């Protein structure tokens, strides 16, 4: 049996999953640069709702990388979000710590050189070269944020006026 190394894992990502991954020689970490593949970084509590919505709609909920220390999930998506849509969505998304990662940004992928399960892992490992539509993922983000806002307004305890 062959040992899993950063190089062998990177080759798997490149050849099987078609992710343009590279190994950082200083750390042994594996990264994919946003460009051909885009990414949306979402706080994990919102990411869970987004994944549920994508799964419910059979739109493919992965690949999703988690970073437990930062409590964020990174959805790898197709590079199809028009610049005008990204600019229009930015104010809403930024207010909830959701970001469409800019071209050139390095996205760390799970690596055997990682620092245990608290470094990087797959929430949903890539089933192959498939990546969901960026527009569909953003639609699920909007749906999750809307549901969170509705729950916040309906679960508030009404204020009772003081008696005179």
In short:
The protein has 164 residues and is α+β, with helices and mostly antiparallel strands.
Report the oligomer: single chain
Distance from first to last alpha carbon: 80 Å
Poorly predicted sequence stretches spanning 5 or more consecutive residues: none
Main beta sheet strand tally, sense and closure:
5 strands, antiparallel
Q: Return the average pLDDT rounded to an integer.
A: 85
Strand order of the largest sheet: 6-3-5-4-8
Q: Which class of secondary structure composition applies to the elements?
A: alpha+beta
Order of helices and strands: HEEEHEEHEEEH
Range of strand content: 15-25%
Q: Outline, from the CA principal axes?
A: globular
- What level of helicity do the residues show? 25-40%
Instruction: Count every beta strand, where a strand is a DSSP E run of 2 or more residues.
Output: 8
Number of helices: 4
Query: What is the C-alpha radius of gyration, as a whole number of Å?
Result: 18 Å
